[in-house]
Amino acid sequence: MSGYYIIQLTMENGRVHxxxxxxxxxxxxxxxxxxxxxxxxxxxxxxxxPDGSVEAVxxxxxxxxxxxxxxxxxxxxxxxxxxxxxxxQDYTGEFxxxxxxxxx
Length: 104
Prior knowledge:
This protein is an alpha+beta fold.
């Protein structure tokens, strides 16, 4: 061996489904979540639920997903997040961008 090593760095892709509970509607949570996802180059969607919580699905590199989850635990100014239910899933690649959904 010549002493040189080739290191291949791969970013494993994944998917995370979140239900964010607390005071999370009426505080620009969806719009701020979309901005965060776009900044992190993630795909998926976010929407309000009838019970006052917010639901989001993110896809992309696992490290970036972890950053998005961490952001959702705080949310935008004015939000008060009580709990984030987090379900990690396999990457599907079904999304082209990150959108705000207005239906349930």
